[in-house]
Specification:
heterodimer; A: about 300 residues; alpha+beta; Sulfite Oxidase, Chain A, domain 2; seven-stranded mixed sheet; five-stranded mixed sheet; 9 helices; 12 strands; about 20% helix; B: about 200 residues; mainly alpha
Chain lengths: ~300, ~200
């Protein structure tokens, strides 16, 4: 199947439309820092390829958008692509609560007008031992955390996915206890690698990839990168997360990519990069050891997997 | 009433029908039309097909208890051998395409991972079944011994469905349905035995 560039709203148009909406609401007080920074990336791959490691190659838009784990739309890899057509990612707001100065709800528009969208090309390693290389657009989670003004007692961040069984057919069945929940330690959340992504390949985030806004934590297994976020909660204790609740002996809270700690049902030593024939070695912290290893220097990673 | 001849006549068509998926998948694999993760897809399709055929062989025995369908047993051997054919393809995909003949890894995988262990034992048990499937073998072994060997189909079916059950991450509906069918078929056999021994008394 081929997806034509013209079938997808270019990210730039989307952002311009957003700018227009904002203008029409006469919110002139907000300074616009976002839209100018965007190039039309679909025509210019070099923007991404120059961010690549020499051993990596970008996965195609088709691969990234037709092979997904997003159980809200069904448990098969092709279900999110096939079943997400009725999902309405706009308007969108994120509720901020827990240990913050003032619990509040941010319109996505407001968040985006306060952050700088950048390109991030990351490897994504699924706990099922396959991987991809994806060019995201997004901003550092730390920027949103600063807006949220958490109290100093906040040690963890919990994320919650939207619950809309009428738009997300997978939620009509209790495969997972809905809504999907994930969490990070505060220092992981503040790490510059951790982003909230709003687009990929220069297009606004496709529904099947977690529209309109999702987490990307590239050194952790994919299930940590929670999609379609509607709530962010600041806590002083480690939050419950969906997969850990479902099968604690298989999925831990940390879920760092680690070739030395196997999943009880399969090896994590190697992975299949989508599009490649032979398996490749899985890298410690998915190859982001330099950036994140220091976060875990006092942690027994075989125990806290 | 369907005669043995009716069933025998359907064999060539059945043969092509059951063989066809493997040829299609092989063609799609070679031409790059098996989706984004073709090795995984090929392995899943072959394995599922094998499990379904194993269950069908069990069903045939049960169906042959129904008078008009008595002769359906003549199809059992062919379908059983096809189950073995798909298991072999499934297993060689795992060895050759998935792990590139990394024997050391594969041996470890079989020993350490219960779901692979289940699948592998199931495969091993199918070998004596397939190799004693000729008329000549039935004669040489004697029907009684031959029948005893072929009771192996029960652990084969149970292990194969467990292999599938453990593999699935969250939504276990499909493997549970297969396990349910297998259990029902086995219960029917036990029930039949009990009533028969009662009649004998």
């Amino acid at each position: 199947m081929k997806i034509l560039g013209s079938e997808i709203t270019p990210y730039k148009t989307y952002l311009n439309r957003r700018k227009f909406i904002k203008g029409s609401l006469a919110s002139a007080m907000l300074t616009t820092v976002t839209s100018s920074a965007f190039a039309n990336h679909d025509s210019d791959f070099s923007v991404y390829t120059k961010k690549l490691n020499e051993n990596d190659k970008l996965n195609s838009y088709e691969e990234i958008t037709t092979y997904n784990n997003f159980y809200e739309f069904g448990t098969h890899k092709k279900h999110p692509h096939l079943n997400s057509g009725n999902f309405k990612p706009r308007p969108w707001a994120i509720k901020i609560d827990g240990l913050v100065k003032k619990p509040q709800t941010f319109d996505l528009e407001k968040i985006l007008s306060n952050v700088t969208i950048e390109d991030r090309v990351y490897r994504l390693r699924c706990v099922e031992a396959w991987s991809m290389v994806i060019p995201w657009q997004g901003f550092q989670l730390s920027e949103l955390i600063k807006m949220a003004e958490p109290l100093s007692s906040a040690k963890y961040v919990q994320f919650v996915t939207v619950f809309r069984p009428e738009e997300m057919p997978g939620q009509q069945k209790r495969t997972i206890i809905w809504p999907y929940r994930e969490g990070l330690r505060m220092d992981e959340a503040m790490n510059p690698l951790t982003i909230l992504a709003t687009g990929l390949y220069g297009h606004e985030m496709p529904n099947q990839n977690g529209a309109p806004i999702r987490l990307v934590v590239p050194w952790k297994y994919g299930f940590k990168s929670i999609k379609s976020i509607v709530e962010i909660r600041f806590l002083d204790t480690q939050p419950e997360t969906s997969w850990e609740t479902l099968a604690p002996w298989e999925y831990g809270f940390y879920a760092n990519v680690n070739p030395n700690v196997n999943h009880p049902r399969w090896s994590q030593g190697t992975e299949r990069r989508i599009g490649e024939f032979k398996r490749r070695e899985t890298l410690m912290f998915n190859g982001y050891e330099k950036e994140v290893a220091h976060l875990y220097k006092d942690l027994d990673l075989t125990k806290f997997y | 009433m369907f005669s043995t001849r009716n069933f025998n006549r359907s064999k060539p068509i059945l043969f092509i029908l059951i063989l066809f998926p493997s040829l299609l998948w092989a063609y799609q694999f070679v031409t790059g039309n098996l989706g984004v993760n073709p090795i995984e897809k090929l392995m899943d399709e072959l394995g599922l097909m094998a499990l379904r055929l194993i269950i069908i062989t069990l069903m045939i025995t049960t169906l042959s208890n129904i008078k008009p369908l008595k002769s359906i047993v003549v199809l059992r051997r062919m379908i059983g051998l096809f189950a073995f054919y798909y298991v072999c393809l499934h297993f060689s995909t795992y060895i050759v395409l998935d792990h590139f003949l990394d024997i050391q890894f594969i041996v470890q995988d079989i020993i350490k991972r219960p779901f692979i262990t289940f699948g592998f034992i199931s495969f091993l048990f199918l070998i004596p079944l397939a190799s004693t499937s000729t008329n000549n073998m039935i004669k040489r072994l004697g029907f009684k011994l031959w029948k005893k060997i072929h009771y192996l189909i029960y652990p084969v079916a149970i292990l194969a469905s467990m292999h599938f059950y453990v593999l699935v991450r969250a939504d276990k509906t499909e493997p549970v349905i297969y396990m349910g069918i297998i259990i029902l078929l086995l219960l029917h056999r036990i029930f039949k035995r009990l009533t028969r021994s009662q009649l004998a008394q």
